[in-house]
Amino acid sequence: MENKNILSNDIAIRKKEEDLLNYYPYAEKIQKVIQGYANNPEPLTIGIYGKWGAGKSSLLNLIERQIEVFSKEKDDKRYIKFHYNPWIYQTKEEMLYDFFETLFGKLIYSGDETLKKAGELIKRYSRYLKSVKLSASAGVPKLFNMGVSFEPYEILQRLGEDLEGEKKSLDELKNDIDDILKKSDKKIIIFIDDVDRLDKDEIFTLFKLIKINADFKNLIFIVCLDHEYVAKAIHDRYGDDEKSGKDFLEKIINIPLELPLVEEADLDYFLKKKINPVLSSKKIRKQDLDELFNSLNGSYFSSPREVVRIINSFAFSFYAIGDEVNIHDLFWIEYLKIKHPKTYQLIKGYAGNRLKSNLIFLETINFNNTFEDQKNESGLRKELMDNHKEAYSIINFLFPMDRTGTVMAYQGPKIKPSQILDTELRINHLNHFEKYFSFHVKGKISELSFSNFKALISSDKNDEALTVLNEMIQNTGQWKIVYRINSEIENIDDKLLDKLINFLINNLNIFSETTNVQENNIEVIRSIASKLAHKSDEKKALIISIANKLDYIQLCWYLETFIRENIEIKFIEEIEQTLIGKVKAIENHPFFKNKSVSKMTMEIWSRLEFDNFQGYVLKHLDSKENITSFIRSFTYLWNDTINGMFKSGDYHEVSAVLKLDCDLIFKKIKDVLPELKDINQTEQIDSNWSDYDGNSDLQNIQQFMYWHLSKAEQDKTDTNISHEQ
Question: What are the KAP NTPase domain coordinates in residue numbering (predicted)?
Fold first, then answer.
């Protein structure tokens, strides 16, 4: 069953076995300081300083744990300890009074008669403080004796409470508490955490509380705080700048202890320990795991808490689309989301019209403007470089740009070919970019399905593979699947290559849609040919078997790809003969009806079997439609609809390259088209043509006739000149 328990908690550690940051040795040192102070009755306030999320609570827990277990000398005092959490109270008054109530409870139930007496006095002390607050807030002096001063116990009695007859001042009561605590054979340790979560008024109240109690004997306060944050919060009560706040802290904190620096090796260890449960929830290729782990570095993180937040963000995304994207890229884009949210939102917002307008001709995303100098930053990339400097190193290896030939070329990551990026599911490839932000694959290729598709082919389960392929096409669109298949063919393992190619050739009819005027099945064929061209010697049997299965149009594209690769293939003529055989077998129309392959077919047939070829052409020039198709095999087609001129160069190709008898073609035209039978001179043909405005069937045919007559007239002129000489 898939492991779904992949989130890391942000709970402070409580024991040595959980210490991934190597804080335990430091906790031991602090324990020894406290232990050495055991027989000194004087109060002590220890401050543990560190940034938010750096691990102060964890260190505090380790210290407490050590206090519970460390061995004591014969005369050492025992400890009573309690945690005081100021963050849970709604008002400053609740914070103040509940502290004394909690301390009172600890002492009353300590089992020590001396501490019980101290607890009773502390309770009275707390009520004294409360009475002072009531007198100030309720306007009590105006209710009693009209401005005559009185003691707090009198106020409480009038309000229905009683200090049990005690008529001591606040200082006298405090001295009594101090005397009893001094006689105690125990120390009281008070742990205070979460100071960083308080607002400035609450922080002031908390430290006022500590200051009030810091004079009591045998009390030890251990307080976790970000001292810079606290100093900023309270400085305006004591002066004009942050130094005033720090001076106030120095008066309260006897021993300031900086949180130990987390060494990079320790943070690396913490990071990898925390991410392991996430990665183990899915099967991941070793090379992908290695790439991610090699990129992880503690120097990118400011605190253990930040590590946990980023890993948890990654865990959610990994669970949603981990099978569909590159895990290295997914982790680091999630890193940007948490660490640099403004940068992340800019990158996320690149999708849509901005993405499409910049990738008209490109498949790789680097955020530069398409039509500007790609060796320098432009567009969004320049904005990211100028205004998001802290995040730019991450951007640079997620979305590298080509700096070939520049001074900075050696500094950037290696640029991989587009097809490799597609196969590796990279964030900087157009086919995968939006997955990293949409967290689903509807309308996108599911890599899980694609992997299943390949596995079925590998196991010779072609019928099941065909079902999966059809489902992927239905979900994402045919052209995306074709593009993905082409990338796969380019990079596939040799063990699967033959099986995949045979499967595709046997199911070419699935890829029948047309994209950019070209059928998708032709794109698949060309990709196969490109791959096989580089393995022609070892794949001869496969190459020839494919040629036998293709129709003549497909075979022309297959051959054209081999020729374009400019690699010598010893048996290429055997495939060309197969093409000619397929062309001869065409029924109902001449092969040159298909403009896209007609010129190539003519060149091959003319070279291999000229007489047979010329006879075929002349035979099929039997209608205006066929004559037009033949002539338009050589003209340019503008915007897929506008027929260009038949030019002198086109006539040269027919007469000199293909070596066709143009006199016979000219005669054939006049025989088939009566409206042209009387044309014998160029002057009879209107030569006011345009290559861009479109040419009718008759104009293209007349253009052939014009160049043929021009050639005849020129030959005649040349002959006359020769005779005169």
Answer: 24-315
> In whole angstroms, what is the distance from residue 100 CA to residue 228 CA?
28
Structure-token pair, residue 293: 């782990």
The SS3 call for residue 220 is strand
Q: What are phi and psi of 692, to 5 degrees?
A: -110, -20
Element (H, E) at 411: none
Tokens representing 534 are 């580089």
22-88+185-261: in CATH 3.40.50.300: yes
Asked if 22 and 263 touch (Cβ cutoff 8 Å), the reply is: yes
Which pairing describes strands 637-638 and 642-643: parallel, antiparallel, or unpaired? antiparallel
| b/e per residue 513-546 (b: at least 16 CB within 10 A) | eeeeeebbbbbbbbbbbbbbbeebeebeebbeeb
The rounded distance, in Å, linking the Cα atoms of 598 and 580 is 12
Q: Give the domain ranges of the chain.
A: 22-88+185-261, 113-183, 264-426, 441-585, 589-725
Residue 283 C-beta-side C-alpha neighbours within 13 Å: 3
Write out the two tokens for 495: 């063990």
**pLDDT tens, residue by residue, 571-584:** 999 999 999 999 99
Residues 652/660, Cβ–Cβ less than 8 Å: no
Cα 330 from Cα 163, distance rounded (Å): 65
Angstrom distance (rounded) from CA 527 to CA 508: 13
Question: CA angle at residue 317 from 316 to 323, to 5 degrees?
Answer: 120
Strands (E), 85-180: none
Cβ–Cβ < 8 Å for 200, 31: no
- Taking the complete model, does pTM exceed 0.85, yes or no? no
Other CB atoms within 10 A of residue 549 CB:
12
391 Cβ contact list (under 8 Å, min separation 6): 336, 339, 340, 343, 384
Extract the runs of DSSP E, i.e. beta strands, from 391-431.
none
Please tell me the predicted confidence (pLDDT) of residue 148: 39
Provide the residue type at 39 as one letter: N
Question: Which residues, 6+ apart, have CB-to-CB distance to 162 below 8 Å?
Answer: 153, 156
> What's the rounded Cα separation, in Å, for the pair 495 and 68?
63
For residue 604, count other CB atoms closer than 10 A to its CB: 22
> Alpha-carbon distance 628 to 495, whole Å?
48
Using left for φ > 0, alpha for ψ between -120 and 50, and beta otherwise, residue 351 falls in: beta
Distance CA 119, CA 113 (A): 10
Query: How wide is the angle at C-alpha 465 spanned by C-alphas 464 and 466, nearest 5°?
Result: 90
Q: What pLDDT digit, counting tens, does each position of 359-389 carry?
A: 545 678 888 887 665 668 888 899 999 999 9
Residues 6 or more apart whose Cβ sits within 8 Å of residue 297: 264, 268
